[in-house]
Write a structure and sequence with these properties.
single chain; 248 residues; alpha+beta; Arc Repressor Mutant, subunit A; Chorismate lyase; six-stranded antiparallel β-sheet; two-stranded antiparallel sheet; 9 helices
Length: 248
Amino acid sequence: MVEKLRKDNRPLYLRAEEALRELIQSQYQPGDQLPPEPRLAEMLGISRATLREALRSFEERGLVKRRQGVGTFVAEHTNNLVFESGLETLESLEKMAERKGLQVQDAGLRISQITLDQELAEKLNLPAGTPAVQVVRTKMAGKHPVAYMVDVVPTTYVTLEEMQAGFRGSVLDFLLERGSPALAYAHARLVPMLAGRDMAEALDVSPRTCLLLIEETLYSMDNVPVEFSRNYFLPDFFSFHVIRRIGG
């Protein structure tokens, strides 16, 4: 593991967090106590200062528990709070949680009317200045922030008043329940990124924490863009997979 860290060109704190995550997943169970900091730093090949920063980030995300004068323990919930989904399936976080027997809630929910700037207008194939409804919220699993979501729907499909009255956590589920327009598919782009100050505050993590951004445009049966979203996921709480077939 030490040699692997040395050959990695990414920032040290990212390498340290990944190495610590791999160590915990491969050798420890929820509730297990981790080795003392000097030994753990030696195992990972990093300084104690870097280790403390990684442990602080993990504690903020609820992945470890630190008990004063006792030590650091793997959080009991770690395995249960992982949402799993195949990326070939278009479904809401609420549906993913339902399969796990979990519930998710919205924090900091803001539903407002905006006008599309040039970037959003291009995503939705509409003129800049077109009115749209924007839904912004942090998704919580218990007391843990797990994702930050921003959805934009032109008022052609839903008014501000309709969204405020009918929104129950998922814009996708809201549109599916309405049934009009009929939805067909989504085009998604996955981008690893580092949390900026505002995003870090919304997700209660350290700035520059690694996130997975999924940008997605939802299309109708007529191949017309209906909704555009940016969803920022904390990787520790999600396991996405995709089925890849042999080309030919």
